[in-house]
């Protein structure tokens, strides 16, 4: 599924719209999950959610590369620090919120 949506995003539709559509479908499946009462149905809903979410991992890189090029930045030198510091910031915020509970 991620490969097929990547081809669609590259050729026919802007990656940002495919990204938004994937997240909207994922949100819909999570709303459906709140109403599910059987394990089999829950498995199917979460499977659909995963199928909607997985393409977004590659699409966000495509969108990031486009934005960096648009800003006149070099992808090879500027993208890795952004990616690394974004991950560090995410974990720092998570640890900070956990320590606040103590």
Automatic annotation (TrEMBL):
<dbReference type="Pfam" id="PF03825">
    <property type="entry name" value="Nuc_H_symport"/>
</dbReference>
<keyword id="KW-0812">Transmembrane</keyword>
<keyword id="KW-1003">Cell membrane</keyword>
<keyword id="KW-1133">Transmembrane helix</keyword>
<feature type="transmembrane region" description="Helical">
    <location>
        <begin position="40"/>
        <end position="60"/>
    </location>
</feature>
<protein>
    <submittedName>
        <fullName>Nucleoside-transport system protein nupG</fullName>
    </submittedName>
</protein>
<dbReference type="InterPro" id="IPR004740">
    <property type="entry name" value="Nuc_H_symport"/>
</dbReference>
<keyword id="KW-0813">Transport</keyword>
<feature type="transmembrane region" description="Helical">
    <location>
        <begin position="12"/>
        <end position="34"/>
    </location>
</feature>
<dbReference type="GO" id="GO:0015212">
    <property type="term" value="F:cytidine transmembrane transporter activity"/>
</dbReference>
<keyword id="KW-0472">Membrane</keyword>
<dbReference type="GO" id="GO:0005886">
    <property type="term" value="C:plasma membrane"/>
</dbReference>
<dbReference type="GO" id="GO:0015213">
    <property type="term" value="F:uridine transmembrane transporter activity"/>
</dbReference>
């Amino acid at each position: 599924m991620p490969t097929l949506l990547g081809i669609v995003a590259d050729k026919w539709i802007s990656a940002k719209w495919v990204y938004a559509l994937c997240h909207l479908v994922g949100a819909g499946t999570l709303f459906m999950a709140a109403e599910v009462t059987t394990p089999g149905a829950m498995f199917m809903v979460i499977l659909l959610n995963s199928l909607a979410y997985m393409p977004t991992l590659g699409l966000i890189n495509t969108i990031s590369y486009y934005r960096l090029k648009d800003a006149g930045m070099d992808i090879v030198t500027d993208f890795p620090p952004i990616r690394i510091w974004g991950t560090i910031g995410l974990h720092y915020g998570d640890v900070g919120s956990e320590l606040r509970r103590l």
